Amino acid sequence: MLKIIVTILVIFSLLSNLNAVNGDKNGCIAACAHAHPDFFKFCANGYSQSDKLKCQNIKEKCALGCPSH
User: Fold this and answer.
1) Does pTM top 0.70 for this prediction?
2) What string of H, E and C letters represents the secondary structure of 34-61?
């Protein structure tokens, strides 16, 4: 019974750690993207396909610079 409880606690601990890592990466991407001078121009409006593509490119470049842990 104790082994089952410990196993469940370990699994939940690992899952919560995964969420924290993803949150760190998403926060890093958002901070980087918001610092980009054209982010709001392309991502806030984003009406045209061209603007959406430029916005996606900004986010992808930021993702490359962020740690993936």
Assistant:
1) no
2) HHCCCHHHHHHCCCCHHHHHHHHHHHHH
Sign of the dihedral defined by the CA atoms of residues 38, 54, 57, 52, in that order: positive
Half-sphere exposure (Cβ direction) of 67: Cα atoms closer than 13 Å:
5
pLDDT in tens, 24-69: 777 888 888 888 888 888 888 767 888 889 989 998 888 888 876 5
The 10 Å Cβ neighbour count of residue 62 is 19
